[in-house]
Structure formats: structure tokens, C-alpha cells
């Protein structure tokens, strides 16, 4: 299988670190021009764009808070201004604000829902408007556009102390599947990835030292995930190699969602 994203333009939100940065790097390596969105971390996003350009790729970094309608509009306008088209959206930005529910502030609830769920809606809506105007770009891709939502194993696995995050990802699941049902006939493919424990800045505390050993008890495959495990799947879902895949969630979690504690019990 030869995957090429030549002539395609991809926009990745939350691309300054972690899964977003790895996805953007992999999309660029597969030939796509890449728009790297960041919120506060301009320097790493600018550096990644410069690295991609230095390797013969095409990339720009654009700052935007994806939970704000006007900033999302600005982000997508910049993408079109730079590259003329949009073929792939990776709606990846996400954050955690963990607390026991009795202590969780409304602000922390709202912020997580705004970025993780509303932000994915706003970016998907902006991408769809462009895909609809463009139609199928013959010779570039069989689809009129591809959207990849970044979800989590916690769209399914309840997570005490993280009700805002789990609720946001449960919402992403229904956002993705309802949207896929709505636009598949326009040959727009909407899918999701549900990562488990991938070593990134979002979960540094849980994936290092003594906490890592405890976390590994939940992962039958015996290792913490690497951002490349997810980035490879992003490239596949963005490409025509997955052209018949619609409304699916690809779980990438080393078996975390297989209820591993039931192997010897229950
Ligand atoms: C969270 C990580 C967590 C993982 C598995 C992810 O969605 O962002 O912090 O380690 O789920 O629990």
C-alpha cells in the first residue's frame, strides 16, 4: 500500500505538541501541505513549520483559540489564503482540567467542553463549508473532504475525577457519528480516533515513574503508546486507502478498552 497525500492540504488543530504535532509531521511526510494551529505555544508550532519547510514540505503555523467562532474563521481563512484548498481536517485540540466533581469549578467544566467538544464542532463546520464549495478534486482524492476527530478511550470508559473530559469525549463520539450520517452522501468522510494512554504533555504525570507502572496494569499490550501510533492512523484515515471507511472510530490503546481486569476475574 502506497499512501500519498500529494496536492492535498491538511489543517491540524493543537499542532504545537503531542499527537497534533506528530500527526502534522506525518501528514507532511506523506506529501500534504499542512496548516499547524496552536493556541498559546507559538514557538514550537513555528519551529515545526520551519522544520517541515526545510525538509521540502509546505507548512504554516496559525494561532487561534478553536473554541472561539471568530478565531476559527480566521484560522480557516489563513489556510485558504496560504494553500488555496482544504482536503483534511484533524480536529485534535484538547485539554484536561481534572478535579473531583464536588470540587470542579464551572469554569473548568466550561473550558474543557468548549475546547474539546465545541471547538471540534466549530472546526468541522468551517471545514464542511469549504468542502462543499470545492466538491471532489478529481485526481487528488476520491472524497470531497476528510474530517478526523480526536476522541479518547474515555468516550466509552467512565473516568472518575475527569467528568468534564469524559463528557466532552462522549460528545465527540455522537458529534462524529451524527455528522458522518449527515454528510456521507456528499462524499465527505468523517471518522474518529480514540487514543488510550499515549505519552504526551497532557498526561506526563500519569505516564512517568511509579505512575507509569500503575498505568501499565491497564494496558495489556505492555507499553505506553507513542504519538506515532496515532499519527500513522491519521495518515491512513486521511488517505484514499481508507476511502470506504465512514463514521468509524479507530481505537488505538494497546488493549486498554478490552476490560483487561476481567482476564483473570469476573
Ligand atoms: C487522556 C490521557 C489518559 C488516557 C487514558 C486520554 O484521553 O488524555 O490523559 O492517559 O486517555 O486514560
In brief, what are we looking at here?
This protein has 266 residues and is an alpha/beta fold.
Textual characterization of the structure:
This protein is an alpha/beta fold. It has one domain: Rossmann fold (3-Layer(aba) Sandwich). It contains eight helices and seven strands. A seven-stranded parallel β-sheet has the order 3-2-1-4-5-6-7, with helices on both faces. Helix 1 crosses helix 8 and helix 4 runs parallel beside helix 5. The mean pLDDT is 97. The site of beta-D-glucopyranose has 9 residues, from loops. Its EC number is 1.1.1.47. This is Glucose 1-dehydrogenase. GO terms for molecular function: glucose 1-dehydrogenase [NAD(P)+] activity. Belongs to the short-chain dehydrogenases/reductases (SDR) family. It comes from Pseudomonas chlororaphis subsp. aurantiaca.
CATH superfamily membership: NAD(P)-binding Rossmann-like Domain
Strand order of the largest sheet: 3-2-1-4-5-6-7
What is the second-level CATH architecture?
A: 3-Layer(aba) Sandwich
Let me know the largest β-sheet: 7 strands, parallel
Order of helices and strands: EHEHEHEHEHEHHHE
Output mean pLDDT.
97
Discrete helix count: 8
Bound molecules: beta-D-glucopyranose
CATH fold group? Rossmann fold
Amino acid at each position: 500500500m502506497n499512501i500519498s497525500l500529494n496536492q492535498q492540504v491538511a489543517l491540524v488543530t493543537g499542532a504545537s505538541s503531542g499527537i497534533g504535532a506528530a500527526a502534522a509531521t506525518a501528514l507532511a511526510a506523506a506529501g500534504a501541505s499542512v496548516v499547524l494551529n496552536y493556541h498559546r505555544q507559538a514557538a514550537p508550532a513555528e519551529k515545526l513549520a520551519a522544520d517541515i519547510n526545510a525538509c521540502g514540505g509546505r507548512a504554516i503555523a496559525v494561532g487561534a483559540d478553536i473554541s472561539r467562532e471568530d478565531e476559527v474563521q480566521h484560522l480557516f481563512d489563513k489556510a485558504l489564503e496560504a494553500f488555496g484548498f482544504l482536503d483534511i481536517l484533524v480536529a485534535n485540540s484538547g485539554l484536561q482540567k481534572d478535579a473531583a466533581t464536588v470540587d470542579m469549578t464551572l469554569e473548568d467544566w466550561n473550558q474543557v467542553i468548549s475546547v474539546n467538544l465545541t471547538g471540534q464542532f466549530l472546526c468541522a463546520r468551517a471545514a464542511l463549508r469549504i468542502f462543499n464549495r470545492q466538491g471532489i478534486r478529481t485526481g487528488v482524492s476520491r472524497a470531497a473532504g476528510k474530517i478526523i476527530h480526536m476522541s479518547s478511550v474515555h468516550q466509552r470508559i467512565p473516568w472518575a475525577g475527569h467528568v468534564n473530559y469524559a463528557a466532552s469525549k462522549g460528545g465527540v463520539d455522537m458529534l462524529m457519528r451524527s455528522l458522518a450520517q449527515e454528510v456521507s452522501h456528499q462524499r465527505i468522510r468523517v471518522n474518529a480516533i480514540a487514543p488510550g494512554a499515549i505519552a504526551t504533555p497532557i498526561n506526563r504525570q500519569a505516564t512517568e515513574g511509579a505512575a507509569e507502572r500503575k498505568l501499565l496494569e491497564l494496558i495489556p499490550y505492555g507499553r505506553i503508546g507513542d504519538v506515532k501510533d496515532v499519527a500513522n492512523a491519521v495518515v491512513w484515515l486521511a488517505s484514499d486507502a481508507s476511502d470506504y471507511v465512514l463514521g468509524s472510530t479507530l481505537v488505538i490503546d494497546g488493549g486498554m478498552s478490552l476490560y483487561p481486569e476481567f482476564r483473570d476475574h469476573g
